[in-house]
Structure formats: C-alpha cells, structure tokens
Amino acid sequence: MKKRLSNMTIANVPAAIPRYPRRAVAPGIVHLGVGAFHRAHQAAYVDACLEGGESDWGIVGVSLRSPDTRDALKPQDGLYTLAIRDSAGEQLQVIGSIQSLLVAPENPGAVLAALADPRIRIVTLTITEKAYLRAADGRLDSTHPDIVHDLANPGSPKTAHGFLAEALARRRAAGTPPFTVLCCDNLPANGATLHRLLIEFAKLRNADLARHVADEVAFPSSMVDRIVPATTDADRARVAQQLGLEDAWPVMTEPFRQWVIEDRFPAGRPAWEQFGVTMVEDVGPFEDMKLRLLNGAHSGIAYLGLLSGHATVDRAFADPSIRQFVDRLWAEAIPTLPQDAGLDPIPYTAELAQRFSNTALAHRTAQIANDGSQKLPQRIVVSALARLEAGLLPEHLSLAVAAWIAACAARGGTLPEGHFTDPLDAALADVFGRNLPTAEITAAVFDLAGFANGHAERQKLIELVATHLVHFKQGGPKLAFAALGIGNEPPRLAE
C-alpha cells in the first residue's frame, strides 16, 4: 500500500511541487466553497504567487456543506495533485496554497473566527449559482429556511450571506478594516450581484450593517474559465501510480485557464497579474463573452448530448449535428455581445472548439447539466432576448432551453432517475406530471425558473421553446435538429 501525499512524503515525487516554505506562509484569503474548480483555478494562481515570494496569501478553505474535501486533504496537509490533461498527455503539479480546511456545519464559529482574522484581506467564493439563494425575480429569497435561520442565529450561520455579514459586523466592531469580497461564480456582474444580495440580507439584520456593506466593502467582479471534470477512481489510480503516493482527491483540468478581475482591492491583493491574471477596470464584456459562448455552448452540448446518448463533451461535440448546432448557436450569440469592447469572438470560438474536442478530459455531460434553472438565464436566455429585441429569431438559443426541459422530463425514463439535479426538481416533477399541453408546460417552467420575467419578448420566446419541445417529444433530438435544417450542411465556425 502506497504512502499518502503529505509534507513529509512530497520531496521526491515526479511532479512539480511547492518550493516555498509552506510553514512560513500566513493566511490572507478565505475561500468559501473549496471544491474542484477552486483547486484547479484560484488556488493554482495563488500557488504561483507563493512561489514568487508573496508569503502572506495562504488560503483558508471553507466547505459550506460537506466535509468530503477536508477529510480528503487534511491527512495530506492540504496538498493535492493538479493533473493538467490534453490529447498529448498529462502533467502533474502538486498545489500547496491551501493552508487549512474548515467545515462550516461542524464549526461555524471557527469559520467566523477565520473571516474576522485581521490577516484576511480577501474572501473568494465558488459556491455555485444556486447557493446565492435568489428568488425568481433575482432578489434575495428572504423566505428560504437557511436565510431565516441565519437572521435568527447570526453566530452560527449556514449561508455565505450569513457568514459574510456576521464577519463584517465583527470586523467593524473590532476596528478591523473590511475584507474585499471576490465572487468567482458564473453570475452576471457577479461582484455587483453579490453586493446587492448581501445588502438585502444585511438590511434584514439592521440598517447600520447594510450601510457599512453598501459603502465600505469592495465587491469587484471577476470572470473565471477552466474546464474541470469530476475526478474518477480511475483518475485517482492513475495519479497514484505516477506519483508513487496516494492522493485522495486529485483534480483533473485542461491546460487553458483564464481569470479576469476588476482591480478594486482596498486591503491589498496578490500580484496576480504577474502570473497570468488580467486586471481590468470593467470585467463585463469578458464575462458576457464567456457566459454566452463557452457556458452557453456547454449547456447546449450537455442537454443535447444527454438526449442523444453522449456521456462526455468530446463525444457529444464529435456528433456532427451537435457540432453544427453549436456553430449556429455561436452565430446567434455573437451579435449580442458588446461591439465596442475589443472582444475577438471568432478566434475565441475556434479555441473553444479545440477545448471541447479534448478527449483526455472526459467531461461528463451530466455534470454540466446540473442546476440548469440557475445557469440558463445568463448563459442562454439573455442572448435569446437580445436577438428578439433586435428583430431576429433565436432559433438555436431557444432550442437549448427546450433541450433542458426535455432532459429534465426524461429523467426516470430514457435518462436515469437523478442523472442530474436542479433546485426546482420537485416543482418540475409536478408540472411534468400534470399532462398539460406542451405550450402550458413551457409557460409553467418559465414561471418556475423566472425566465425573462417582465420582458416584452417573453411570450415569443416561450412559443419558440414550446415548438422545439414538441419536436423533442415527437422525434427526439433528430427531429428537433431536422426542423432547423441541421444535418444537411457541413459544420463551420461562427462568422
């Protein structure tokens, strides 16, 4: 049986390892949501900064729900392997930037103490879209049981909102400057969105705290990009064989990575720009391009891939009909992007095509399919509405929405029960069980998800989606594609 990866065993592994003295690193960042994406992305960038001699930016990782990451990494002193994979092979790097790990449900007091530590100057988040607890209108869901709990029990919160608000209150009471809050989730204007939500939460506590959050705390927006498939047992076995050590939770990723951040950090920040991060005044255009072209295509590939029997992105993207659909989706979405922001979407989509074709990643379509009701508004719906406003039809964008509905309805039938999940699963099951006409099902799903609420073109979008959904019901993806003429021309890149 192999020894475990740790500070004591790392010296001779055949991989890039931390060369900085880890015990001399001081904490400077608390990260909420210490999952695989964070460990492949932000933690890797911070590791580079530590290698560069910035020893006061170690990460305190916080799991808001499950102890799994802590249980895997604590015996390894927070070390883990980042496996960077493409069709040419695999490179291993051991990351050492995570200095300690906390599990919020086990000890919320310890998390609050870490957040209140004066050495902590940045709090980053990757908690997924659903964890921001927004209602259908985009505002804070003040009736959510966890929000109600946090308002009644500020010293033992459950939500990111509760932890941030209480920590900021404690820092203010102690005369400690506030930390900067850096959202790294796929929300539109993610910094501004989280700022607004936290102000709403703080107002429910008291007006003074709300003013403090509004006026004194920085919330720069950011855009993150790296494909991170779920780690499998085969991945663990392969990494262990190469390292000669057991690693309970290595992370798989691609060579490409990108991080664009608005440069507003009153309490200081690492010199990220020296290690590939783009610091800007306005991240909005970069965010729009990534959400609408990468994430939008990913969602379309996921749902159409599932309905077509493709388990991974590369296999789905190799399907000529899905590839043609993606090219057409890009052609619809590109004109909705800001035209005066210096974006270059054609080379960007060409690079995306290469990334989607990476056979080494085995990125599961079911993994991408999770939480569609939270993801589609910023990935698909916003582009579809922009086209309708311009007098253009979003035929392929609306097909992606219909594919999500069809894939949700297919679980327990042509797809396994629970194959992917959504926060609206119980309500969706109720709608699907009513045997309603397709148009009424579509409208009911739009109501549940809050898609295009209040928008003048909402009904037109519902009608387009319903038409596609009829095709899915009558003949599956083949008929839905045929209705758009897909399959009758060779694939091409968006122009």
Automatic annotation (TrEMBL):
**The keyword Oxidoreductase belongs to this UniProt entry's keyword annotation:** yes
Domain Mannitol dehydrogenase N-terminal intervals: 28-273
Pfam families named among the record's database cross-references: Mannitol_dh, Mannitol_dh_C
Q: Provide the E.C. number(s) assigned to this enzyme.
A: 1.1.1.-
Q: Which residues form the Mannitol dehydrogenase C-terminal domain?
A: 282-469
Recorded GO MF terms: oxidoreductase activity
The protein's name is Mannitol dehydrogenase family protein
Source organism of the structure: Mesorhizobium vachelliae
